[in-house]
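Contributing new records

If you add data, match the layout below exactly. Sequence lines come first and carry their own label; structure lines follow with theirs. Keep one chain per record. Anything else will be rejected by the validation script.
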Amino acid sequence: MSSTSAGVQFADLHAFERDLLYAVRALERDGDAPKGLAVKDHLEAEYDEEINHSRLYQNLDGLVAHNLLTKGKKDDRTNEYATTDEARALLEARTERRAEQVGLSTNGGETA
């Protein structure tokens, strides 16, 4: 089972924290520097409901504390987030494990 240098395993994270990691990674992949509001918008589209600012930023800060996200300042009012190598390794390991469980390969095809 994969864990970070701080000992955090994917299973240790709450569903919302996991969804935040996936959201930040998806925004990174799309070429955006994920800002808090972009992450919020992404998750609101997934959840089809409004996400409380306090809940969002407390959980983002928790992921920073676990060394799964980095937090930088774009300007005085805007923070940008990025997944760490540890977060990407956790997401990749989890994705591969889930793909195996449902009979898919991580390269997009089905396994025998």
